[in-house]
Amino acid sequence: MESPRNAAATLESAERIILRWDSTASEEARDRMIFEGDRREIDTYLTAVDEIQRSMESTALADDQSKASSAIQIAMARLEDEFRNLLISHIEPDSCVFDPSSVSSSRRSSASSIDSSRYYSEDDVSREFDVVQRGAAGDGEGEDSTTPSYRSTNSIREIDLIPPEAISDLRSIAERMISAGYTRECVQVYGSVRKSAVDAGFKKLGVEKLSIGDIQRLEWEVLETKIRRWIRAAKACVRILFASEKSLCQQIFDNIGTATDEACFVETVKGPAIQLFNFAEAISISRRSPEKLFKILDLHDALSNLLPDIDAVFQSDSAESIRVQAAEILTRLAEAARGILSEFENAVLREPSRVPVPGGTIHPLTRYVMNYISLISDYKQTLIELIVSKPSTGSRYSGDPSIPDMDFAELEGRSPLSLHLIWIIVILQFNLDGKSKLYKDDSIAHLFMMNNVHYIVQKIKGSPDLRELIGDDFLKKLTGKFQQAANSYQRSTWVRVLYCLRDEGLHVSGSFSSGVSKTALRERFKAFNSIFDEVHRIQATWLIPDTQLREELRISVSEKLIPAYRSFLGRFRSHIESGRHPETYIKYSVEDLESALLDFFEGYPVSQHLRRRSG
Question: Residues in domain Exocyst complex subunit Exo70 C-terminal (predicted)?
Fold first, then answer.
């Protein structure tokens, strides 16, 4: 055991060392940093601090206690300064915008005193994230001798932010500050400096400081770009930046005090984490509209994939609010997606346009809805999990003629998402059927329905995911509907044309007659010419945009019209040609009719069509 005299001498020596580095009393102490000096000087100072702390525990004399207490206060102020300076000196100036005035009494070490060991900057964070994205996490692929070490667990990639020798010095300071009861000061200094490094990382990754109100005031086109950037940045922040900050806290503070490492970590990243997740929260509670669905689903998928990593990185009780915030945002994003889908269904049903599209072509609503649900099918894995209830169909609104009635019993076993997509197509057809009644001509109304239902069928066939969700049984029903519309068109247009080519009413009896009434025959040819001219003039301006469908309908019409006309002409031509001005009555040859049919459904402007025929 050390004698009282020797103990006193040791204490006095320690006090002299502490006072020598009192920056409030010594110009030399203000101009120099202990941990920028040689190792022996550092160790001497730390030993002096230890000696004073021991003396405070062992001495019972009031004077000695007072002197030791005063010395320890000076020492803690100095160590706080050294701690801050060490942390600042290991933030690269070119990768961090750091304002020294924001931290009181901070000192930067000179460039020559910064340890030459390689450690990670925010540029490294971005580069390492690219490696994570390529699926190389944990296998060391692509590393070389200049790349710093890292530790990886699944998708989390921890990066060494500060070199080991600096961590050792920081830990030695932290041990003494915490042991002396200066935990709060140590945590605050650490948090303020490292938060600046995290903020610099945010800036590098494009994470902006925007309030929820700021975000909600932005135009959606601007937000779409920001959402893409946020998803990438959030992955880097959680899996690399935050995870590495947590690792650094553990390296410096593990087993020093009670959960000091967690306190320092939360002090450092809680503000930035809230800032990061505020963006997703603002999107989740923003006004709902159909165009937002897919970016909301992108956000949901990204956050859902990140949630296990968030739980791992923020696993402590003190970080619970961050875990809760992320989980609640995920729930709200799911609710937003379900709400948007429901509102989209209602918007399709209620779409109010009352102007018929020219030429009976595909309605813009049909294109929009089918493109929309094709995109929905791209997110089927996510939506199958989110959409858990059937749509509210017309059966809920008994007797309401403005809502289609549909029984899903025959679709038993289909997923709720499949039922929602089928329901959207049902209400789309219901709306289109109402729009078809805007046409005054039944023929173009049928052509309109044929065009639109055919487009629906082709969109479903063109997307394997959508076809799987809709199912072949419902697809067959749709195919039958557009074929039925095609048949209805042909009946409404061509029955009256073919009616002119019947024999009934042309034959007469009498010994001086040829058996055919030339007067009736001339009227029949004139009626055919008039009706066909009118149909040709009008329907050449109608449009079937699908080339194959257009050709198939022409062939179907031709197979009925051309043989009937050829037969009629063959039987009665001689009766007309034997009279005066036969060209007045036989206006079309069979070839003329075949050529005229090629004009049908081309969507010619009226003026252009008239020029074509006159030419």
Answer: 229-599
Fold of 4-91+155-288+296-303: Monooxygenase (1.20.1280)
Distance CA 95, CA 205 (A): 11
Residue 200 corresponds to which tokens in the numbers above? 């610099």
242 secondary structure, DSSP code: I
User: How many CA atoms lie within 13 Å of 157's alpha carbon, on the beta-carbon side?
Assistant: 25
User: To which H or E segment does residue 159 belong?
Assistant: strand 156-159
Structure tokens at 309: 């990593």
Opening angle at CA 316, ends 261 and 245, nearest 5? 45
What are the structure tokens assigned to 502, written together? Answer: 């019947």
Mean predicted lDDT score pLDDT of the chain = 85
Tell me how many degrees the CA angle 372-373-379 measures, rounded to the nearest 5: 105
Phi and psi for 15 in degrees, rounded to 5? -65, -40
Does 1.20.1280.170 match the CATH number of domain 501-598? yes
The whole-angstrom distance between residue 323's C-alpha and the CA centroid of its chain comes to: 22
The dihedral over CA atoms of 429, 435, 437, 442, expressed in degrees to the nearest 10, equals -80
User: Whole-structure pTM over 0.85, yes or no?
Assistant: no
Alpha-carbon span 200 to 207, nearest angstrom: 10
pLDDT at 451 over 60: yes
Cα torsion at 256, 262, 263, 267 (round to 10°)? 130
For residue 465, count CB atoms less than 10 angstroms from its CB and return exposed for 0-12, middle for 13-18, buried for 19 or more. Answer: middle
Query: How confident is the model over 539-543, as a mean pLDDT?
Result: 96
* The domains spanning 4-91+155-288+296-303 and 501-598 adopt the same CATH topology: yes
